[in-house]
Amino acid sequence: MVDSTRQLELLQQQVIACTRCPRLVRYCRKVAKEKRRMYRDWEYWGKPNPSFGDPNAELLILGLAPAAHGGNRTGRMFTGDRSGDFLYRHLYDAGFASQPTSVSRDDGLELRNCYITASLRCAPPKNKPLPSEARNCQPYLEAELRLLTRVRAVLVLGRIAFETYLRVAASQGEDFPPRSTLKFAHGASFSLPGGLPRLFCSYHPSQQNTQTGRLTPEMFQKVLVDIREFLNG
Fold this sequence. Notes:
The protein is an alpha/beta fold. Helix content is about 40%, strand content about 10%.
């Protein structure tokens, strides 16, 4: 029987080869061909981003989608953009990452007790995926949650990730509460039925949120402290 780690690896190969959303495939390839001037010497990834992290993780982090010149360029989620700069610095401080920076797939970064995935694996134009594209990508998240058997905490980054996870969780858990009773807010956390992981919420670490002060380092650190205390408890 193939173990769960190998199954996760095979699943990510399926993600990389995915062409379920023609609009996103065209956009990712277009960006990879045209490039941004400052990255003209890069060979862009230009394909769906595989998930990344520890297959035995207790913490699952769910983001929105790769950035056009971040993950779509580097081939790794939250790598090569300002969101990743913010995220990995704080994951390192909290003990979930081996280093505070993430610039390329071969930079030596390892996640510790943490696994990062996203609602969509392709960069969407203007960061606005279509509902049909989110539905097309959802089975990959469902499969990951089945294979990541040690996950005890899920951190969603932003409202779209929150709604994505609730759709998946509602289909897996018995006696799931009406989704209208679960309200997204930064710092909120929820105990879900049926043995599901505890759900923690944060604003997305987008450049817009971090530069305007909507999400400060202290706010994000507090969420990670809450998660660490939960896992240690």
